[in-house]
């Protein structure tokens, strides 16, 4: 870790003088520090200054010290804990380097403020593409939604819901031919197709809001809720600003999977009508087609390719950030038998190979499903 040397930010030691135990470093209360993530062969933590909006990578040893900078320990005590953990005591130059870097980045209480980066923005909206925020305070909106419906995220509600969704998808697979035929029939009826498209768009909007509500449940901050268009596609979006800083891996996975669960939950009443209500053939086909298209929409979001939700879930299960890029680089080195591949720890090798093989299997499954669908359509 490199940093400028000089005065200890917010401390009492002048430049060139060894910092003393009178200085008790403390992170600003709003600074965010992530869990450990794999990044290439390294293990890193992410540190974010919400005031400036900037995030930084730090190593495990730096994190050991940063995580203990709560204003209760002096440098001597921090140094003793570090020496006990790593068998090496930090010198004055090391402290000046670390504290100087934290101070320059505005991470220390009592240190200088770092203003938010001001970059001349290009126009965000054109006729063909752009974004449009819909609410002035997205985080407050997500909090209000959480207060209204957050009780549904408790286990007594979620467990039955997930069981019903699983049962619905089992039925969908068992009667897949009917669903495909219903989708084909749906595309021949413009009125019903328009209705199904509107419902699926509404499901997409709920998908995005579900990310925000679940993130708020686990302490996340929602930065923006709005519309994004890349004509002819117009979709809603919800940006969780501190997704990687949620407290646990479980919280992050739950936030990422919430959208697909919402998509499938929207289909449950239509599935019930299709299965149990006496409806005419045209309505039955339309409902079957809706179930097929809605299930494909939801499950497609769980494909582990960036930037889909499934990729975020895979990254969390692997404990990595930049999973796709790191996997590509490791596989490239391994295929070439580059000695650098041996520098990757076993955990990283397992994660990157597992993601690569899993992605190939998913891709093969998608290709096989498309081929089977084409064959079915040609045969009917």
Shape: elongated
Chain oligomer state: single chain
For the biggest sheet, the summary is:
3 strands, antiparallel
What order do the SSEs take from the amino end to the carboxyl end, as H and E? Answer: EEEHHHEHHHHEEHHHHH
Nearest-angstrom radius of gyration?
Answer: 26 Å
Helix fraction bin: 40-55%
List unreliable stretches of 5+ residues. Answer: 1-19, 118-122
Tell me, rounded to a whole number, the average pLDDT.
91
Residue share in β-strands: 5-15%
Class by helix and strand content?
A: mainly alpha
Number of helices: 12
Number of strands: 6
Q: How far is it from the N-terminal to the C-terminal residue, by CA?
A: 64 Å
Which sequence of strands runs across the widest sheet? 1-2-3
Characterization of this structure:
By secondary structure, the protein is mainly alpha-helical. Helix content is 55%, strand content 12%. It has helices spanning 60-66, 75-86, 92-104, 138-149, 155-174, 176-186, 190-217, 249-276, 281-300, 309-318, 323-335, 346-379, and strands at 32-39, 42-49, 54-59, 129-133, 222-230, 233-240. The strands form two sheets. Strands 1-2-3 form a three-stranded antiparallel sheet. The longest helix is centred in the last third of the chain and has 34 residues, at 346-379.
List keywords for this structure.
single chain; 380 residues; mainly alpha; three-stranded antiparallel beta sheet; 12 helices; 55% helix
